[in-house]
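pinging the channel bc i need a second pair of eyes. not urgent but kinda urgent?? the chain im working w is below, pasted from the shared doc
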Amino acid sequence: MSSTDQLEVEVKFAVDDATPVPDFSAVEGVAGVGAEQRFTLSATYYDTPDLQLTRNKITLRRRSGGPDEGWHLKLQGTRGRREVHAPLDAGDATDPHHVHPPRTLLEALHEALPAAPVDDSSADFIAIAQVDNERHVTDVMVDSPSSHGGAESVGSATSYKGAEFCDDHVSSRGLLDGGQAQHWREWEIELSPEILDDHHDGDAQRDARGFADDFLDRLSQHALAAGAKKSSSPSKLIMAMGDTMPD
């Protein structure tokens, strides 16, 4: 069973329904902004019956819709989060009370949390929240310094996808006892795999990371200037669980 592994570095913002989407083309270093794309995403989040994952800030979900649909396991990292993916048709989620995630994700989970089950034939997980999202996505291209890898030539300039801006219109439902339905809007700015390419050593790696972090900071400041506020919640799951979130 195939799986993929990538780094996720993003910032989240709370916005009300009337907040206009910012024009990132005015930000220093932005080479251009792509056309908006829209996706309908539907995700179910899972945990062990005693909520081991949620207590350890680990997320497991199965999401349909969008270019990266499938199973997603998100683990805490020293920089951002490590995200492990598996295909949508892997595992078994037909019974929300006895869910069996893909074995590749269970193995990655067990490495990070040894107390978590690793045997896909006996590891039962339960559905804890449902999150549906109308996502409006815009690619933000970045001007690249000649020393940074992963760039491609566009006309006479050098640029590539530096980040993805997501305008999310979210509906959620907590699936544990006492769970409630909620609706909100939020923005996410996530650095692209190209700008996070860490195939460098020493000073070159530090320069590449500094370049990516500076770019994310400039985009974030532009979002704040447009009326957004830094989100008080680190994830949609925490918002969806509400008062059923464990201490």
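so The chain has a mean pLDDT of 89. and Residues 30 and 177 are 46 Å apart (CA to CA). — does that match what u expected or am i reading it wrong
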